[in-house]
Amino acid sequence: MKNFIQKEIRAFDTFDKNGKRLIIVNLLYSMVFPFVIVFSTAFVNRATGNQVMAVVNSFGFVAGMVAGNFINGKLLQRGINIRYLFSIGMFLSIASTFLMMLLVKPNIGVYIIFFGFFSGLGSGLFWSNRQFLSFLVTNEDNRNFFASLDQFFIVFFNALVPFVFGTLIIGLGRKTGWFDEIWAYRLTAAVMVMLIGYAMALILKSSFTSPVIKRFSYFSFSKIWQMHRVFALLFGLVSGGFLFFMPLLILNVAGDETVLGKIELSMALISVMVIYTLGRITAAKHRPKMMFFGALVVIAGGLVLSQTIMNEELVFNVFKISFLGVIIMKISQVTAEPVINMAYASTKLSDFEKAAAIENRDSYTYVFDNELFVGLGRIFSGILFITLNNLISSIGALQYVFIILGLLQIITALIIKKLTNVRISSI
């Protein structure tokens, strides 16, 4: 055990002081992340009683993220300190979510898109700067480990926060009558705003310096980055399904927020074990296999879900088959998503470096362009859901969308193999 702990400390010590500070900030933001993504979707679904409105809010969020990336680049060009932009982005992402939970009414209609947009705008500022700073504090030897820490935090708090909120806080409100579900959302979001305040203080105390950016928006790129664009687009399709459709599936088939919280917590151990193990034992050459494995797991879960969701028969007079289908799909997600995200995150940072070496452009060029195509992928994911929703039904759309996303992810695995085989020494 002593040798294991010392080995892990040495791995953590490969990062400099700013790198360690960024990891701590990432940990704090991971506590807030479920409210910005998962529970904003659940809240809109509850407050409006309309799944399509939840997807509309998500459209606004994705559009805001793309706008945030573009605005961030322009502000960096003007010499605005990256620490300020990073901090403002963190605050705006959760503050907009908090305001939405204070103000949204059942008859809000398509105006819900504006709350999603401003939350996405803050997230765009945050993630674009976070990606750039992650690129600065990592190298090819520790990027898998850095990506695994990121995913470890996200998965752990994606499980813990929904459980604490859904099972304990909402459960307490129902039991005591002190507050209803809507007020539970509002009170918890207020706590998240305070957590972000602390994360902002940490970043403002760091010594990160702003990059010198002359231009970051281009239409023409080298072959490697054109491949990366397709890679980012397909990743956005799948990540959009995980972010927006899994909460809707659980809420509409398996139960309410209390069930969502219990399911997330019970599945966390699987993800945590997968993430940390892969982060410590894998190298760049394993990324295509990781992506392919994730795609197969998503397809398998989607196939089981498609065969069970419409069947309401009881198993052992306890569980409905449709409920078991959702649980199996959730197991597939928590197994596949961290593997897919790790392969994506480490490949993305490597591609930034390779493309910059070929084209001699500012690194932020690739941060912006990557987020643009991931955002487009998430928009297409929403369009796919709405199309299926109109052709079949809301439940029918949730029933088949994961099979489609898994099949598309296989193409991503083939692309990532080509990207990984490119070496800077051969450029």
Can you describe this structure?
Helices cover 82% and strands 1% of the residues. The model is unreliable at 314-319 (pLDDT under 50). The protein has 14 helices and two strands, in the order αααααααααααββααα. By secondary structure, the chain is mainly alpha-helical. 52% of the residues are buried. The protein has helices at 2-12, 17-36, 38-48, 51-77, 82-103, 112-137, 143-176, 181-204, 223-254, 257-281, 287-308, 321-359, 363-391, 394-421, and strands spanning 314-315, 319-320. β1 (314-315) and β2 form a beta hairpin.
Shape type = globular
Supply Rg: 21 Å
- Secondary-structure content class: mainly alpha
Summed up, the domain count is 1
CATH architecture: Up-down Bundle
| Spatial arrangement of strands, main beta sheet | 1-2
**Would you report the number of β strands?**
2
Task: From the 3D structure, determine the CATH topology.
Answer: Growth Hormone, Chain: A
The stretches of 5 or more residues where confidence is low (pLDDT under 50) are 314-319
> How do the SSEs run, as a string of H and E?
HHHHHHHHHHHEEHHH
Cα end-to-end separation: 43 Å
Care to give the gist of this entry?
The protein has 427 residues and is an all-alpha fold.
Task: Outline the fold blueprint.
Elements: H1 2-12, H2 17-36, H3 38-48, H4 51-77, H5 82-103, H6 112-137, H7 143-176, H8 181-204, H9 223-254, H10 257-281, H11 287-308, E1 314-315, E2 319-320, H12 321-359, H13 363-391, H14 394-421
Helix pairs in contact: 2-5, 2-6, 2-7, 2-8, 3-4, 3-9, 4-6, 4-13, 5-6, 5-8, 6-13, 7-8, 7-10, 7-12, 9-12, 9-13, 9-14, 10-12, 11-12, 11-14, 12-13, 13-14
